[in-house]
Amino acid sequence: MMVERYVMSIDQGTTSTRCILFDHGGRLVSVTQREHKQHFPRPGWVEHDAMEIWRNLERIAPEALEHAGATPDQVAALGIANQRETSVLWDRHTGRPVGRAVVWQDTRTDSLVSELNARPDADMVRERCGLPIATYFSASRVRWLLDNTPGLRERAERGDVLFGTMESWLIWNLTGGPGGGLHITDVTNASRTLLMNLTTLAWDDDLLAFFGVPRAMLPEIRPSTETYARASRVLPGVRIAAALGDQQAALFGQTCFAPGEAKCTYGTGSFLLLNTGTEPVRSTHGLLTTVGYQIADEPAVYALEGSIAITGALVQWFRDGLGLIASAPEIETLARTVEDNGGCYIVPAFSGLFAPYWRSEARGIIVGLTSYITKGHLARAVLEATGWQTREVVDAMNADSGLALKALKVDGGMTADNLLMQFISDVLDVPVIRPMAAETVSLGAAYAAGLAVGYWADLEGLRRNWHRAAQWLPGMDPVRRDTEYDNWRRAVERTFDWIKPGGR
Amino acid sequence: MACVPGPVQSIERAAAILRLLARGSGRLGVSEIAASLGLARATAHGILRTLQGVGFVEQDEETGKYQLGAALLHLGTSYLDVNELRSRAINWADALAARSGEAVRIGTPLDGRVLVVHHVFRPDDTLQALEVGALLPAHATALGKVLLAFDAGAAAALQETGLEPFCRRTITQHRELGRALAEIREMGWASEVEEFTVGEAAVAAPIRGQGGLVVGAMGISGAIERLCDPRGRPKPTLVTYVRDAARAVSRDLGASRW
């Protein structure tokens, strides 16, 4: 009997960790998932327990094999995709994290970020790494932890304490942890730290000095696809062959391999990435320049990114914070109880606004409330917020690239919401297309790992696996579109300048 | 009928727990419940966990106390939101379309017809239109026949109405439909061969939720020459794909035996 071989992907996301086995056709064979706790110790703080996430992985990876009736030796390779920028520090000798991981949505560093932005050499940062100085990226968090944990800086300088994003933490643990774990990151994750030089793809001494982060604590930067090592724990012997930030993994999973190809992933936040080829493109409209992927020793492929902090997270807040729905998909049921938003708009600037505004002092609002407004209208406004935020990012992308987007490829959990997908098509005035694998983050990590070990031969082969699963066509009256967009932008303006400098 | 079994003890106990929670303040800890009913703590805990699993009781995260669950208030209405069903099924529907090479649809019952709640295009990148929201006749489609076969109430309601013919092969006699539904229950899947559209065939299987309740039907549809063998019967491999996908969704929804 022929031994069937799979590729395994681990998607370490913001709310859960999932493990998926794919077959050669890129088809899903088994899925396991475990949520982890979100810690909100203070307003604006968001933390994860890195140990809990590691234990979840220890559990779901063998379960995924079990569901498929497979053994580790049938897994050709493992690829990891991860929530980006979330930072964990841990003790190299004990393997214990130093406090909880600080999540990408956390805004505790906002005053530190204002200070850094006020420095005369602040412009150097964006030139070198392609990112604005914002609470979103890792460097300010690492600096904050070093400043606020007694004795930590000395331990970090000695190399006793290590820094990593989630893929580093998982790879270090999978390859032995305190007993010789491999301390690495990939170029896409490194490109989100504010510490990597976009051209040399190496840690930049000036950036390290600017943020006050010791080099000894940093992982080694590696390509996104390459056999890094074999796992010694959980999946003994399995080759760990890819790591990418989740959004870059989705770009890969959507097979956006050519310059000009773009996708938008709808999850906790939403992220539109446009492949710009082997040259980094600098944005003048509030987008990020980032690494898309690097295949082994080939030149890196860059991307322009429009990041939206809160989309699915707004639905989760509607469910958990307000208790107006029992499960996230019910937002569509509730929204369909009314014809329109009733004049109500919600701008979810929960952790400031990301692209294209980058206003960390903005906070969320609900405007247009009248006694006419029901929870149905609020549900509409929740979904429409995702649509309009996409429109703003697409406008910026069109302005930066000088091209007009012709269709939007989408993926992620929110693509199951037909009302939302139709609305996005309506407000962008272009077709919205969902590929046959909505789990493109996981698929991208699997593709990258499979490519590294020769399970898939080349990018063209992967492209042939891409098929259209659904398409929504625009159908909104242009006058209404313009009026609504204007209302939305007026609502956005009302979120600005809410948090006063220095005050909390 | 000499061997009708007696009352099931655990169900009696579960009913007693629900009655207890429905009284007074309505929030009780496991020890209080066990003491009130004279049950061992482990027994009470086991029943509470099961009731929690089906949504009839809820546990407060902070205090650990139990109260009646929201699902009890909505017993009459569909317990699974259709948008949630789509969300839970979307991965398996994609995988089924990729495996079979055909379009996939998921349907739920709505006023004696089938509401298409999810649609995945046939993976050949030809121009296709999204059919979500469309209503299909129950008696003339594989999705509808699955829903009728596992819902005696819906099948009985159809008795009152005429069965509209769409093609030469549409089932129009109630007696014949009854036989077809019995066969579907026996086999665990349904087919439709030129019963709704000439030249088209379909295969569907039930999606089950907790306790085996059928909450929807999932299937593929397409050209008869691709779906059927030369004798006009659905190809066994395609039937297997459909049944496996429906089972995978059912497993995710908590139907343990299927």
From TrEMBL, chain B:
The keyword Transferase does not apply. Residues 8-70 form the HTH iclR-type domain. Pfam families: HTH_IclR (PF09339), IclR_C (PF01614). Keywords: DNA-binding, Transcription, Transcription regulation. It comes from the Bacteria. SUPFAM superfamilies: GAF domain-like, Winged helix' DNA-binding domain. The keyword Phosphoprotein does not apply. Signal peptide: none annotated. Residues 71-255 form the IclR-ED domain. PANTHER family: HELIX-TURN-HELIX TRANSCRIPTIONAL REGULATOR, ICLR FAMILY, HTH-TYPE TRANSCRIPTIONAL REPRESSOR ALLR. This is IclR family transcriptional regulator.
